[in-house]
Amino acid sequence: MTSIPKRDLGLHLTERDVRILEDLEQHRLLTTRQIQRLHLPATPFGSHATASAGTRGTTRILLRLESLKAVARLERRIGGQEHGSALTIWQLGSAGGRYLRLRRGDTSRSQYLEPGRAFAAHTLAVADIAVTLREHAGTDRFELLDLESEPGCWRPFTTATGQLALKPDLFVVTADATTETHSFVEVDLGTEHLPVILRKCRTYQQYHRTGIEQEQRGLFPAVIWLVPTNKRAQTLRDGINGARDLDPGLFWIATTDQALDHLAPYPSPETMPGDTTT
Hints:
CATH architecture of the largest domain: 3-Layer(aba) Sandwich
Number of strands: 10
């Protein structure tokens, strides 16, 4: 395989290629299917009428980028209902990372290693929330005004005991014609022990008490815990309600399939299901 000089990679990249690299840099890991959903969505009037056709097209793009060392695949795949190449996991390759850094004048170096299984599973779950928001924004009832992933969404702050950092999985701002919805998002896969969850909740409460976010935004974002099952949701709810030092009003708990209901602008009272007002 012919190698490409470091500064010439951009000559081999399309605008869509660059957007794919930027998404991999932002989210750290994405599956072929997630990249397809973002960049080759299946629509009746698009170039790919089905998700399978879009996935085949996405795979061809990724294989070309892999040959340029712009992206790299992980050795493992994820479990799930998908099959074949849709489950392949991708991250930035050495050349792709270097290209993006050079574009913005960043002379630092990064090393791309094979992440552990737990890290990969959580990272992909967080990415899937972001992908879902981007899929529905603009074509549904809301706009996506801000979507920050780690570490861009972290909030360092100072308490009487020293420096701390709030580290959400995502920070999201959506809006419709009348409402903006601000959210810190925590994606829980049901693997963390409850004391770890409660400790994170206490950090949110400490940050809330500083007033920093309220001063900057005029409000404190909702803290949304997204969990895999109703049983897990009840476990978190009981734990937070039972912790005397926590304010349950700061935290919302929902299953992952309810993410849009909480992260997109909430429906007004007159449009909520079961409302009988006229």
